[in-house]
Design goal:
- By secondary structure, the protein is an all-alpha fold.
- The chain has a single domain, classed as MetI-like (MetI-like fold), CATH 1.10.3720.
- It is built from 13 helices and no strands.
Length: 286
């Protein structure tokens, strides 16, 4: 087949212009743009036209505390997840491929387990008569059961466990792409292990940390099941408040406004991360 014939066949198979993108654009419009516009419209028309729902959310101290709790929990969960996931990802990056595949499979398998089942398992483990408190008391480390549930501690433990795979996956890819010879060269030049980590490994792994951290933070902002079961009323998060507004109070206007604020914050964080990554690439990672 000649070159001209191959080009003509390829042209027939690939629609020109926006024709090839039309199905994807229709799906995005139906399942993302239309619901978001409906959410925005409901937030400014229910119960009356205006911005009273947004004024109530941003001006009331009770709602402000829920917003603060949401961002606090998301920040704490993201920080702890990064600290736990980094050594695990580094271990996966340097261990033999066969063993790494087994460990990697165990990590991925945990993602396929039902979320509600995992959360209930942590409820059993963290309660006052649970395995963790009983083991600590049996060893004599504590005299009274620790309050590990219905507070920020329980929410953090449960959500970090759930978020770990989403942090490990991008980190492993980034760490495997780092040339091991750079660390050996640093050691030959007299750098200590901590210096090699701080000045070489950590800067080179920042794209993976940023990608995983953003994913964990954004997912934590909208999490509902785990905070509702492991947290208390003093640690209510925004997703739980939205569910109460719509399901219990039937206040669709206020709930839609809260959901739209959460969406705007999420998109702003994503745009900021894209800009920071773009600036870093443009400056050569300096």
């Amino acid at each position: 087949m000649s070159v001209e014939t191959q080009q003509s066949v390829a042209t027939l198979r690939m629609p020109g212009g926006l024709g090839g993108l039309l199905p994807a654009l229709i799906l995005i419009g139906l399942f993302f743009v239309v619901p978001v516009l409906a959410l925005l419209l409901r937030s400014v028309t229910d119960p009356a036209p205006g911005f009273q729902n947004y004024a109530a959310l941003l001006g009331d101290g009770t709602y402000a505390r829920v917003f603060f709790n949401t961002f606090l929990v998301a920040a704490v969960v993201t920080s702890v997840t990064v600290l736990v996931a980094f050594p695990v990802a580094w271990m996966l990056a340097i261990m033999p491929p066969a063993l790494a595949s087994i460990v990697f499979g165990v990590i991925v398998l945990s993602m396929w387990t039902n979320l509600l089942t995992r959360t209930y398992a942590w409820m059993v483990l963290l309660q006052r008569t649970g395995v963790i408190n009983r083991a600590l008391m049996a060893t004599g480390l504590i005299d009274q059961p620790l309050p590990l549930i219905n507070n920020l501690t329980g929410v953090t433990i449960g959500m970090v466990y759930i978020m770990l795979p989403f942090m490990i996956l991008p980190l492993v890819g980034t760490l495997r792409a780092i040339d091991p010879m750079t660390l050996r060269a640093a050691a030959l030049c007299g750098a200590s292990p901590f210096q090699a980590f701080r000045r070489i490994l950590l800067p080179l792994s920042l794209p993976g940390v940023a990608a995983g951290g953003l994913m964990v933070f954004v997912m934590s902002l909208g999490y509902f099941v785990t905070p509702a079961l492991l947290g208390g009323t003093s640690n209510m998060m925004l997703a739980e408040m939205i569910a109460q507004m719509i399901q219990s109070l039937l206040n669709w206007g206020l709930g839609s406004a809260a959901a739209f604020i959460l969406l705007v914050v999420t998109m702003a964080l994503y745009a900021l991360q894209l800009r920071l990554v773009g600036v870093r690439r443009a400056t050569g990672g300096v």
